[in-house]
């Protein structure tokens, strides 16, 4: 069934409207209100306030299983460099990851499925806040997402620059890496820069520690294990002729296997404790656990693959692709409910800008195939009884 042109045109306008008015995590008041009002106009049951600004729209259509489709709504703290008429009107905030497009796609899918009703069961349309580093998915789960709205499976998509438009990539197993961040404090003894023997230099200790941490993926793990250790911030010192008392290092760890994640954390702890000691410097670390591995369940991933083959053709489906070392908090939903997360190609005739780039803009040509795919997935997962299917 071909999607109406008017529906896609409306979805494009929604997307551009949302792009012009981006809101950061847990601040999506306008976005959540807009989403809730649209869902109500489609005739769905609507719940608001889950994880502060989350919205759930429920469409019931006869007996059968219950599934969830998720879109993220938040923007990033980036000042947009784009010149499109719908560019961000809010300095310091922009939709640099395509969440405006994800929201518009799911809204259009809800409207179309409410009109066509070619399935038997229940669909929950999950509009999630605060995906970018703030753990909105975890908060929704903790506040009872799957208790209040029981689901047999939950699904999410993400637009993906680097894949051609009309392609879909999905894995059984790891799709995105885990994320943990850390803060290391190295405390020595301040002294005159001309008299280093009178103190204990935390900057030298920091330099050695940064290099040593890079040996963890290279020499302490199997080449078949996947891990990235990145020190991304260094802070210390005030005067050019003074060795400071302390230096702070911050960074992230990303892994594709749970056991590797635990091993890397233990190794970093031991390096921070032992390596600075011969220099007379004390090391302490604080961990800030982030997202688990985005790990797709086997049956839902296969459902996505099979629906994609039916929608786009087998040659357009990338099965068991290399996972990304970026992270995604939909992983927290997958820990609580079976499901799958997948990428839809975003590149048109020219490559898209990278995600999180200040010149990025969502490719509106992705909206129609994405809505059509959600429809196919719902109808294949929640089929009508044979004797009630339309000719």
Structure notes:
By secondary structure, the chain is α/β, with parallel strands linked by helices. It folds into two domains: 5-176 and 293-382, Zn peptidases (Aminopeptidase); 178-288, Alpha-Beta Plaits, CATH 3.30.70.360. The chain has eleven helices and 16 strands. It has an eight-stranded mixed sheet, with helices on both faces. Strand 1 and strand 2 (54-61) form a beta hairpin. The mean pLDDT is 95.
Helix content: 25-40%
Measured on Cα atoms, how large is the radius of gyration?
Answer: 24 Å
Work out the count of structural domains. 2
CATH class of the largest domain: Alpha Beta
Assembly category? single chain
Instruction: Please give the count of helices.
Output: 11
Flag low-confidence runs.
Answer: none
Shape: elongated
* H-E string: HHEEEHEHHEEEEEHHEEEHEEHEHEH
Strand content: 25-35%
Average of the residue pLDDT scores: 95
How far is the N terminus from the C terminus?
A: 12 Å
Biggest sheet strand order reads: 1-2-4-3-5-16-6-15
InterPro entries: Amidohydrolase, Bact_exopeptidase_dim_dom, Peptidase_M20, Peptidase_M20_dimer
GO molecular function: metal ion binding; N-acetyldiaminopimelate deacetylase activity
Keywords: Hydrolase, Manganese, Metal-binding
Organism: Mixta theicola
């Amino acid at each position: 069934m071909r999607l109406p042109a008017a529906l896609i045109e409306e979805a494009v306008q929604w997307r551009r409207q949302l792009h012009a008015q981006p809101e950061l995590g847990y601040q999506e008041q306008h976005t959540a209100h807009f989403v809730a009002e649209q869902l109500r106009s489609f005739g769905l049951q609507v719940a608001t306030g889950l994880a502060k600004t989350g919205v759930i729209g429920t469409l019931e259509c006869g007996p059968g299983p219950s599934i969830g489709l998720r879109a993220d709504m938040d923007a990033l703290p980036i000042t947009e460099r784009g010149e499109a008429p719908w560019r961000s009107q809010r300095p310091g905030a922009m939709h640099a990851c395509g969440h405006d497009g994800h929201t518009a796609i799911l809204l259009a899918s809800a409207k179309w499925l409410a009109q066509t009703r070619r399935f038997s069961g229940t669909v929950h349309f999950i509009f999630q806040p605060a995906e970018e580093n703030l753990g909105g998915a975890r908060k929704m789960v903790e506040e009872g997402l799957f208790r209040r709205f029981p689901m047999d499976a939950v699904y999410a998509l993400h637009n993906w620059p680097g894949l051609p438009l009309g392609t879909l990539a999905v894995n059984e197993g790891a799709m995105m890496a885990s994320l943990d961040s850390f803060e290391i404090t190295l405390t020595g003894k301040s002294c005159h820069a001309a008299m280093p023997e009178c103190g204990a230099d935390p900057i030298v200790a920091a330099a050695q520690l940064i290099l040593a941490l890079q040996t963890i993926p290279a020499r302490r793990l199997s080449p078949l294990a996947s891990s990235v250790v990145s020190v991304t911030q260094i802070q210390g010192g005030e005067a050019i002729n003074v060795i400071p008392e302390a230096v702070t290092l911050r960074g992230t760890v990303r892994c594709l296997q749970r056991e590797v994640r635990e091993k890397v954390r233990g190794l970093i702890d031991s390096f921070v404790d032992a390596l600075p000691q011969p220099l007379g410097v004390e090391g302490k670390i604080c961990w800030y656990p982030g997202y688990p591995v985005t790990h797709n369940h086997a049956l839902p991933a296969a459902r996505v693959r099979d629906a994609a083959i039916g929608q786009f053709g087998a040659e357009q489906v990338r099965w068991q692709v290399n996972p990304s070392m970026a992270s995604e908090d939909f992983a927290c939903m997958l820990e609580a409910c079976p499901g799958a997360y997948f990428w839809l190609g975003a590149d048109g005739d020219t490559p898209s800008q990278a995600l999180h780039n200040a010149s990025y803009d969502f490719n509106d040509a992705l909206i129609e195939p994405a809505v059509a795919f959600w429809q196919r997935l719902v109808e294949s997962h929640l089929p009508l009884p044979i004797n009630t299917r339309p000719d």
